[in-house]
Specification:
The chain is of the alpha/beta class. The protein has 9 helices and 11 strands. Strands 2-1-3-4 form a 4-stranded parallel beta sheet, with helices on both faces. A 4-stranded antiparallel beta sheet has the order 7-6-9-10. A 3-stranded mixed beta sheet has the order 8-5-11, with no helix packed on it. Helix 1 links the parallel strand 1 and strand 2.
């Protein structure tokens, strides 16, 4: 977005080379005297062997593009039309809207402009005219628009920064207001499991089931397991592979943790053998 970007140039001058001495040189000098940083190929291109690269680099670094549109661009003396002004405009409008494209007519009127095959953007609006007698006036108009864009960008940037700060500062309040809980790794508590039958014998082949997760225990004497501490009220014991206690398959029993777990968190469960079928 435009207002987050710091521009190297206030204005990029798009024009025909033939118009430099007659109007553009004086226009650029006036803009600079009014405090604008102006990219003008005559003064800014250092390596003319790579002038295309320098132009393409400077356009995105410019806040506005000032297009001096003349008959030379529309009716070049050479047979081939002048393409570079339109290439520069196309590059500029790739990332900016047309409010940052400031067009001035030179040596042509708005009515004459409508006869040319150019984009409707130029033919359907009244474009200011630049000539030798109003250079200061039109330069001032461009300078004022550039400054308005700068002010607009600063205000939008400050507003966006305010929104970010407001959002950051509001997080603690929103968390407390809506009781937002951040996900944390589940805590566990150690459980010592003692499972005996009604004769006092420890049972083997025990599968402890918590939240549908299995914790297999080979022997029922003094086996310690870590179970999730998620405020559950019950766990399930499943006895497997013992014909005396589960002749018809696995046998399950539920344990109420509130009643059975006492410090140091020992579960002791007496199991009565099932009658043989």
């Amino acid at each position: 977005m435009m207002f987050f970007k710091k521009y190297k140039w206030d204005a990029f001058i798009c024009h025909a080379t033939e118009d430099k001495e007659t109007i553009v040189d004086s226009f650029v000098l006036t803009l600079k005297n009014q405090g604008l940083k102006v990219w003008y190929d005559k003064e800014c291109i250092k390596d003319w062997d790579n002038f295309k690269d320098e132009i393409m680099k400077a356009i995105p670094q410019s806040r506005v593009l000032v297009f001096v549109l003349s008959k030379i661009i529309l009716e070049p003396e050479e047979k081939s039309p002048k393409k570079w002004p339109w290439i520069e405009i196309g590059k500029f409008l790739t990332n900016k809207n047309d409010e940052y494209l400031l067009t001035l007519l030179y040596g042509i009127t708005n009515d004459e402009l409508k006869r040319y095959d150019i984009p409707d953007f130029f033919r359907t609006r009244k474009i200011p005219t630049l000539h030798e007698n109003n250079i200061v006036d039109k330069s001032t108009g461009v300078s004022n628009k550039v400054r308005r864009h700068k002010t607009k960008g600063r205000k939008q940037t400050l507003f966006f920064v305010f929104l970010i700060l407001f959002g950051v500062l509001s997080i603690p309040f929103l968390n407390s207001k809506f009781n937002v809980r951040h996900s944390q790794p589940p805590k566990t508590i150690p459980i010592k499991l003692r499972v005996i039958d009604n004769k006092g014998n420890f049972l083997n082949g025990i599968n402890l089931i918590i939240d549908e997760k299995n914790y297999y225990i080979a022997h029922g004497e003094n086996c310690t397991v870590n179970i999730p501490n998620n405020d559950q009220e019950e766990i399930t014991l499943e006895f497997m592979g013992n014909e005396t206690y589960s002749p018809a398959g696995p046998r399950r029993t539920r344990i109420d943790l509130e009643e059975n777990i006492l410090p140091p968190f020992v579960i002791e469960k007496r199991i009565t053998p099932l009658p043989n079928e």
